[in-house]
Write a structure and sequence with these properties.
Layout: E1 7-13, H1 20-28, E2 36-41, H2 48-56, E3 62-66, H3 72-82, E4 87-90, E5 95-97, H4 101-111, E6 117-125, H5 129-137, E7 143-145, E8 148-150, E9 158-161, H6 162-167, H7 178-189, E10 193-204, H8 209-225, H9 233-244, H10 246-252, H11 259-275, H12 282-285, H13 288-316
Helix pairs in contact: 5-13, 8-13, 11-13
Length: 317
């Protein structure tokens, strides 16, 4: 590794009392330490800020910005603007960093000095049966990057130069979808992108259906507010509209016509499982209990999509 690259780690937080110590512990365990760690609190009502202050008494690198009612997008902007270094590492609360995470990101710059943004990998934490099914439902499947399989791009596992942030106009002031919009702007700006398949963070999934529903309803609302329906909502709506066409056929002719949308949905569920199987076989992908659980999670996400869409349209009016 070349001369040490000074980095600022920026993390937006809000009501992370239960997870903040684990995140800080994983930061302190990094083989390549950030020069400073900036937490931007977006209006916590628990003791997140108090915990950070106590930890900051023993670690002078920790800086805390209390931003009031700030979205993750605004929080990242405030943190990056306050950073003392040109290279900014980004992650989120509720995430655990592998010990070599930052080191692997920086190594990409050593190999390719032209890179202005580096994306690392992320893995879902899947300890319970429900979390394992969730990992087959909505985290992105892995794709080949630099000869290895990884998930990404993922803003909470990234390293960017300040010029990239400036050229993209910062992050949108949104509670969800701000990362996708920002990454799309970066790609459109043509900055050289590096990939670090071994730079891994662990992402905590929602533990139950109600959590999944709330998460995706919020994402849906903010995606619509950002005008990004074509990337998600329109595809889901088209699918259900096509299936709905079989209802009058079933009423007029034969109820067996409803088997077509059922088979279509089953094929969608199986495809979701198959592309995320990571080397596991056909019979594993057809496990009926797992299949049913993934099917229910996907239905919950679809319902949340329409609910969030409706909320966004009502607020707009």
């Amino acid at each position: 590794m070349k001369a040490k690259l000074l980095t600022s780690l920026v993390i937006p937080v809000r009501d992370e009392s239960a997870t903040i110590q684990g995140l800080v512990k994983s930061i302190n365990s990094q083989s390549y330490q950030p020069a400073e760690v900036i937490f931007v609190d977006g209006g916590s009502v628990d003791d997140t800020v108090e915990q950070l202050r106590r930890m900051g008494e023993f670690d002078g690198r920790i800086r805390i910005i209390e931003a009031g009612e700030a979205t993750p997008g605004r929080g990242r902007n405030l943190g990056i603007a306050a950073a003392r270094n040109e290279w900014i590492a980004l992650t989120d609360a509720g995430i655990t960093l592998e010990p070599t995470w930052l080191e692997r990101l920086v190594e990409v710059l050593d190999r390719d000095p032209r890179a202005m943004v580096v994306y690392g990998n992320y893995e879902p934490v899947a300890e319970t049966f429900f979390e394992r099914c969730s990992a087959l439902a909505y985290p992105a499947p892995k794709t080949a990057r630099e000869g290895e399989l990884m998930r990404g791009p993922f803003i909470a596992s990234s390293l960017i130069h300040r010029k990239v942030w400036e050229a993209a106009g910062g992050f949108p002031d949104l509670r969800a979808a701000e990362d996708l919009i920002f990454m799309n702007r970066v790609a459109e700006a043509g900055f050289k992108t590096g990939w670090a398949p071994d730079a891994t963070v662990w992402w905590q999934l929602r533990p139950d259906l109600s959590g999944v529903f709330r998460k995706f309803a919020l994402y849906s609302t903010h995606n619509v507010r950002a005008g990004m329906q074509r990337y998600w909502h329109y595809g889901v709506a088209r699918q259900y509209l096509v299936w709905l066409l079989f209802t009058p056929l079933a009423v007029i002719y034969d109820w067996w016509w409803l088997a077509i949308p059922v088979v279509g949905y089953a094929a969608r569920v199986w495809k979701n499982i198959w592309v995320r199987r990571e080397g596991r076989g056909l019979w594993w992908s057809l496990d009926p209990i797992q299949f049913a659980c993934v099917a229910v999670i996907l239905l919950t996400i679809d319902l949340a999509t329409f609910v969030g869409w409706g909320e966004a349209l009502l607020k707009k009016r």
